[in-house]
Structure formats: structure tokens, C-alpha cells
Write a structure and sequence with these properties.
mainly alpha; elongated
Length: 164
């Protein structure tokens, strides 16, 4: 049996390679879809009309999911790169930094930032610069829910009931 910790190197595991490859493939497909959504309002409308795919989106959140395809695709690509970087970095010796692990961790962190942007686009349609231009006037799901819950009130901040 080889003690990789003593040698300081290890090969890319099969699981890391498969997961990284899947993330990269999903990022490519998502990037292609995001490009079409950005450039063709008819394609975006067709996607919304077809309805949700999979279990992650309901009927009410699907339009927001279509709006947020760009940060989701970017995040998937970053996750794939991060998995490859971490998997091929080798073992880290105690007290030593490994550039591959640090780069991979940064990519995974940015993946979660992109995932957060995707969720805020679904809920609030923000940040607007990540939303396709023809969908920027849409209302996010949380804002629409607020308007349904409190009809007649604006989305602005209300004064406190004691007037404070």
C-alpha cells in the first residue's frame, strides 16, 4: 500500500473527475441556454411556457429560474474547475499551503456566491445586471408574494405602527 501523505502527491480520484466533468458539462449546457435566453425573448418565453424541468423549481418559481440561468451556469463552471483543482492538488502537508487547494476552495466559494445570486434573482429579481434585459421589469417571487399578501400597499418600507 502506498502512503500518499508521505509522498505528498496523489492521483485525481475517479469521483472528483466524474463530478468535475459533470459540473463542466452542465455549465456548458447552462451557458448555451443562458445565451439564448439573453438574446432571444421568444426563446425565454417558450422556456417559461413549457414549465419547470426537474424537482428544483415549481410553477411559481420557474420564470425566476429562467431569469437566473447566467449566474447558475457560471457557478456550475466554477464548481467544476474547483473540483478539478482540489482533486489534482495532491495531499497537503500540515503547515504548508497548497495553491491548488486554495484555488479550488476559492472556486467553490464563488460557486456558492453565484448560487446565492441565482436565488436572489428568483426571489427579488436582483441584481438586475445578471438578469436578461427583456426580463428586468419582472417582479421577483418574494415581492409578488408580498403584494398578494398585502394588497393595496406598495413595496416601499411602511412606517412602524407606533409611528416610530
Amino acid at each position: 500500500m502506498i502512503d500518499y501523505h508521505i509522498q505528498g502527491r496523489r492521483a485525481l480520484d475517479g469521483g472528483e473527475a466524474v463530478a468535475g466533468t459533470l459540473f463542466i458539462v452542465f455549465a456548458g449546457a447552462g451557458g448555451w441556454i443562458a445565451r439564448k435566453v439573453w438574446l432571444d425573448p421568444g426563446y425565454a418565453k417558450g422556456m417559461v411556457d413549457r414549465g419547470p424541468v426537474g424537482r428544483f423549481y415549481g410553477r411559481k418559481t420557474w420564470r425566476g429560474g429562467v431569469r437566473g440561468t447566467l449566474p447558475l451556469a457560471i457557478g456550475m463552471g466554477l464548481a467544476g474547475i474547483g473540483l478539478f483543482a482540489i482533486g489534482s492538488a495532491g495531499n497537503v502537508r500540515p503547515g504548508q499551503a497548497n495553491a491548488g487547494v486554495l484555488a479550488g476552495a476559492a472556486c467553490i466559494l464563488l460557486f456558492f456566491v453565484c448560487l446565492g445570486c441565482h436565488v436572489t434573482i428568483i426571489w427579488f429579481n436582483r441584481p438586475r445586471w445578471l438578469v436578461p434585459p427583456h426580463m428586468r421589469q419582472d417582479t421577483g417571487n418574494a415581492v409578488a408574494w408580498w403584494h398578494r399578501k398585502r394588497p393595496g400597499e406598495s413595496a416601499t418600507v411602511r412606517p412602524h405602527r407606533n409611528g416610530l
